[in-house]
Design goal:
This protein has 150 residues and is an alpha+beta fold. The chain has a single domain, classed as Alpha-D-Glucose-1,6-Bisphosphate, Chain A, domain 4. 27% of the residues lie in helices and 47% in strands. It contains 3 helices and 7 strands. Helix 1 packs across helix 3. The longest helix has 24 residues. The radius of gyration is 15 Å and the shape is globular. It starts with a strand and ends with a helix.
């Protein structure tokens, strides 16, 4: 078993509302998250938001597929939990904090059990690179995308 736990925080020169709109638009996440290969919505909630999404990610050593269930905390962030996929289990979150003057602090966090087989590939220095790759990609990707005005 290989437990991966990582988070990254960035300060973004964009309002919290804009940052939330970007993270909540799961179908377009591959546009700004380099590690995310695809995001396919399986089910939507009563408000039309993506509730169950199949995501394919590049975990550096292997392409990983996870079917994730999302819960939204409008304008404050979101959480997700793997319902099935290549990992034994996976939980994650985005947390957004208004810093005033149109600035936002965004924290991206992941915790996962890679399972035995993938755990053998992701250990030692490789594990640190994978954690850095996944969290930096999401957090820095959000920062660049939100600040670009796209």
């Amino acid at each position: 078993m290989g437990i991966l736990k990582a988070e990254r925080t960035v300060e973004i020169e964009a309002p919290k509302k804009r940052c939330y709109e970007i993270i909540a638009d799961l179908e377009n996440s591959p546009k700004w998250q380099q590690a995310m290969i695809s995001a396919k919505v399986i089910d939507r909630d009563g408000d039309g938001r993506a509730q169950l999404v199949e995501i394919k990610s590049d975990a550096k050593v292997k392409e990983v597929t996870s079917r994730l269930a999302f819960e939204y905390q409008p304008e404050d962030g979101m959480t997700w939990e793997q319902k099935n996929g290549d990992l034994k289990w996976l939980n994650g979150s985005w947390s957004l904090e208004d810093l005033g003057d149109g600035r936002t602090r965004a924290t991206y966090a992941l915790e996962a059990d890679t399972g035995r087989m993938l755990g053998l590939l992701i250990k030692g220095p490789v594990q640190d690179k994978v954690k850095d790759w996944l969290t930096k990609d999401a957090a820095e990707g959000l920062k660049v995308y939100a600040e670009s005005g796209d």
